[in-house]
Amino acid sequence: MKIASTVARYLAGAIFLVFGLNGFLHFIPLPPPSGVAGQFMGALYVSHYLTLIFAVQVVGAVLLLVNRFVPLALAVLAPVIVNILSFHALMAPSGLPMALFVTLLWALIFVDVRPAFAGLFQSRLQPRA
What we know:
By secondary structure, this protein is mainly alpha-helical. It has five helices and no strands.
């Protein structure tokens, strides 16, 4: 499982680095989406919210690729992945397979670093003595 997690970490890091940098450098030409997806992306672009999203992707990707603060990288990338999944599930289903693949990679990495998140999954807080 350790090898699968390492491969998933590098793949997810590479994917988020490429697409995050593409948001700034535009080296992969992507046609603008149409319909509601296009309107949504237009609003994100005009408000400069996409800049924040791309920056978060780049930071998370670098953390994954250098194998430092991996739980932090997962925590930072999780809401980005949720939004990517929601966007593709509801507005642009053509990108859903890639979104599901990135989600699977995230889950494989999460399983490896799960002990770092143990405190989040406590049903009751134990008071300090």
